[in-house]
Design goal:
By secondary structure, the protein is an all-alpha fold. 86% of the residues lie in helices and 0% in strands. It contains 17 helices and no strands. α4 packs antiparallel against α5 and α9 packs across α10. The radius of gyration is 22 Å and the shape is globular. The two termini are 33 Å apart.
């Protein structure tokens, strides 16, 4: 009886802190993303979907440098700061200089796009990129707003807002595809981002900083903010680069829109496993920040997070394997059953990535040890290029999936060794 009361008490506490809101929000976000991806695949032809994937992939390369990572400083320094005026100072600094940096970044991308050729298969991407890059500052601002919600421990608001943003973007994305194909998607998403940015900025200011006068950062604080932000950007950028390289290398080495489209479809279900690791990572990060000096707490909590994530991801993967033929046939049609071998390999890589690579990297970033993630990311990218050039030309999408398994395993091992070395005293105790 007492044990049941303790369990209920813990569940109630998790509900109040917003853990279930984040998990539920992540689940519905991923479900809606998958649903929208299904509709997009149905509306656009394979050629069109391959072209859209190519444009979005190039855009995401540019987004790596958005704001030089200043948005990430919001999560760390707003959490550590107790004075609401100083919290606003960090937030205002990140927003203001993030905008300046993004405007310069847009001009750089436009200039490069003007003089670079995308090849015959993707030649029409040049004009599309001129418009798509304009989304960058608005997407970055929305990301900053959501990071502030997390920094204020407003997990419920974070879940609700991220869900509503995603729904709006995906609805406009599908409508754009129906009305005018790839061009419709691009224009509708740009308009949606602009509207959402102004709406959420007004709500955020009113909620946290109404009539609050910000305390400006001093030179040392500005220096610390930039150092942390740039380090975080480089680390996350290398990881994002790794993800983007898989798609980019396939498009270049296969020179096929349809091959690229097949890989994107095969990635949908494995990508859904990120619900668990992403939700848990989002929830626990602020608590690891608060306990960053307590090595024993960090090691103990790290083991729990890894174990829980691994068990849940493995169970979900088994369910996918059992139902995969039914799901693919129902959603995409029998013509896409050929992607099953690739998808099964991607499920394995998703387990390795979600339970080990992502979890360790997320905790290391939370406690300020970004340099370890940087080391693992550099090693991962080098290995990715090596195995991609060895496997993709002959195996195509299958080669990309095998490369992911190998590289995620290497990165996870490197991160674990570095993590254990850092917290070995706590491990011994």
């Amino acid at each position: 009886m007492m044990r049941n009361l303790q369990i209920k008490s813990r569940l109630s506490l998790l509900w109040k802190k917003g853990a279930f809101h984040i998990l539920g929000g992540s689940f519905f976000n991923k479900f809606i993303s998958m649903f929208a991806a299904i509709i997009i695949v149905r509306v656009l032809s394979k050629d069109e979907y391959g072209l859209l994937s190519y444009v979005e992939n190039i855009y995401n390369y540019a987004f790596i440098f958005a704001g030089l990572g200043l948005g990430n400083s919001i999560l760390r320094f707003v959490v550590l700061e107790n004075d609401i005026k100083k919290k606003k100072g960090y937030f205002d600094f990140a927003i203001k200089y993030g905008i300046y940096i993004n405007l310069v970044l847009i001009m750089i991308v436009i200039t490069i796009n003007t003089f670079v050729s995308h090849g015959i298969e993707f030649s029409s991407a040049k004009g599309m990129l001129y418009i798509y890059i304009l989304i960058l500052p608005f997407q970055h601002l929305l990301d900053d707003f959501l990071l502030l919600e997390r920094a204020m421990y407003a997990n419920s608001r974070y879940a609700y807002f991220s869900f509503s943003i995603l729904c709006t973007l995906l609805i406009t994305r599908v409508l754009g595809a129906y009305i005018n194909g790839v061009w419709g998607v691009i224009y509708f998403i740009l308009i949606a981002y602009i509207i959402l940015t102004f709406l959420f900025f007004y709500n955020l200011k009113k909620k946290y900083f109404e009539e609050v006068e910000a305390i400006k950062l001093n030179k040392q604080e500005i220096k610390n903010t930039f150092i942390y932000s740039v380090q975080y950007m480089i680390t996350n950028g290398l990881w994002t680069l790794f993800i983007l390289n898989g798609t980019f290398l396939l498009s270049q080495l296969s020179n096929s829109r349809t091959e690229l489209a097949d890989l994107k479809v095969a990635m949908v279900l494995p990508g859904c496993l990120g619900i668990v690791s992403g939700a848990i990572g989002t929830y626990v990060a602020p608590y690891f920040i608060k306990h960053e000096e307590d090595k024993h707490w960090i090691w103990k909590s790290f083991l729990k997070v890894c174990f829980i994530t691994f068990v849940v991801l493995t169970m979900l993967s088994i369910c996918c394997l059992i139902l995969e033929k039914f799901i693919i046939t129902l959603i995409y049609g029998e013509e896409y059953l050929t992607i099953l071998p690739v998808m099964n390999l991607l499920l394995i890589s998703a387990i390795i990535n979600g339970s080990l690579r992502y979890t360790i990297a997320n905790i290391l970033a939370a406690v300020g040890l970004i340099k370890y993630n940087l080391i693992a990311s550099v090693i991962g990218i080098i290995c990715q290029f090596i195995f991609s050039f060895l496997l993709v030309p002959s195996l195509k999408a299958t080669g990309t999936a095998i490369t992911e398994i190998i590289v995620y395993s290497i990165m996870s091992l490197v991160l674990f060794i570095l993590f254990r070395k850092r917290f070995r005293e706590a491990r011994v105790n």
